[in-house]
Amino acid sequence: MTTPQLSGARAGVAERAVESRHLRRVWGLPGTVLGSAGWPVDWPGRVHVRFNYWWQAHLLDCVLDAQLRAPSEARLKLVRRLVRGIRVRNLVGWTNDFYDDVAWLGLALQRADRAGVGNPHAVDVIARRLRSGWTDHGGGGIWWKRNDDFKNVPANGPAAIFFARLAGTGGEREDLTRARSIVDWMRDCLRDPDTGLFWDGLHVHPDGSVREVEKNFYTYCQGVVLGACVELGPPYQDLAAEVIASVDKHLAAQGVLRGHGGGDGGLFSGILVRYLAQAALRLDRPEAAKAADLVFRSADAVWDNRSMVVSGPLFGPEWTEATGRAVAGSAERDLSVQLGGWMALEAAALLEREGGTPPRDPVTPPRR
Question: What is the C-alpha separation between 73 and 67, in angstroms, rounded?
Fold first, then answer.
């Protein structure tokens, strides 16, 4: 059973494990660091051949979670090194061709600014790129990638959160309207009427008409819609509450979120847990309690099913299953999977600090 402050201690252990196993300088340059894509780290990982831009944005977000949990100058120094490492390794500036990647870095940089590590130029560059991504093809929304035919929730959700936050910190007057328009488009064009969940995205013809809808359900999609609704406040509270109820019914087992394997999928449920925690704290609806329950149960399952290896716990891609070994081809090697588990623990720690009440009946028995 989770006890007071235990979630924070668990998050701290996860933080140290990820940092000790994955963090490496960028090409030996002082003042830089990035997370190696896999552990044990092979030679491509040591020199960051695989960059995984958006994984690094979530690594930065996790470090900022830890800074909120236990502020220190050492973490702020690590934030600066991560930001510099991302810029150095990205080579061509702050952005790339993927609007979802860019939005995630923008969100992390906004949080870094609030923590005292500001980079207004980078945020401005990202804002201009995201603003340019909206077109009327498929009814609206921003593209997944430049010069592509796909518009999806994974790009539009974080962009809406970014614009909503930017509107409150001196962005353009239209940024709040942009955030609302994005959420309205996702609700109108990409919501399944039967489950209330949000589909992945849609492909369009050159003339703007819809060619095909990708009707996959990912925890990622529900998380970013929920996060945007929470940021936008009262007009979207009912939709936020409906998303929580749909997630509980269709994407969780005994209150634990389902996984999506390794690779990019390793981050999906961590993203949802992050925004469930925000909903638990800020949503003025009865479903806020359900959001908190999903956070605590998922975090308990992450911890209970961990394995212990060099430098601490290792997490798996399916939180209700025992974690396997970090060997070639296994999801447990992926930084994304480890960040997903760490995010869940930080989300529980946040609710714990705010007086949240963990469930009395753990889903899985504690490991011995």
Answer: 9
Instruction: Please give the C-alpha separations between residue 132 and each of 52, 143, 164, 177, in angstroms, as whole numbers.
Output: 23, 10, 16, 14
Closest CA to 40 of 60, 24, 58: 24
Q: What span, in angstroms and rounded, lies between the C-alpha atoms of 365 and 363?
A: 7
- Per the CB < 8 A criterion, the answer to whether 222 and 247 are in contact is yes
Cβ-based neighbour number of residue 260 at 10 Å: 22
Q: Are 283 and 240 within 8 A, CB to CB?
A: yes
Residue 288 to residue 265: CA distance in whole angstroms: 26
- Between CA 106 and CA 99 the distance in angstroms is 10
Instruction: Check if the beta carbon of residue 333 is closer than 8 Å to that of residue 38.
Output: yes
Q: Compute the C-alpha angle 288/289/293, nearest 5°.
A: 120
Each of the 368 residues of the chain gets a pLDDT tens digit; together they read: 445 589 999 999 999 999 999 999 999 999 999 999 999 999 889 999 989 999 999 999 999 999 999 999 999 999 999 999 999 999 999 999 999 999 999 999 999 999 999 999 999 999 999 999 999 999 999 999 999 999 999 999 999 999 999 999 988 989 999 999 999 999 999 999 999 999 999 999 999 999 999 999 999 999 999 999 999 999 999 999 999 999 999 999 999 999 999 999 999 999 999 999 999 999 999 999 999 999 999 999 999 999 999 899 999 999 999 999 999 899 999 999 999 999 999 999 999 999 876 664 544 433 42
Q: How many residues does the chain have?
A: 368
Q: What are the beta bridge partners of residue 98? A: 145
Crossing angle (nearest 10°) for helices 153-167 and 219-232: 20
Among 308, 296, 157, 339, residue whose Cα is nearest residue 239: 157
Q: Which of 351, 361, 365 is nearest to 6 (CA)?
A: 351
3-state helix, strand, coil in the chain (%, to 5): 55, 10, 35
Domains by residue range for the chain, with CATH: 91-353 (1.50.10.20)
CA–CA separation, 123 vs 136, rounded Å? 25
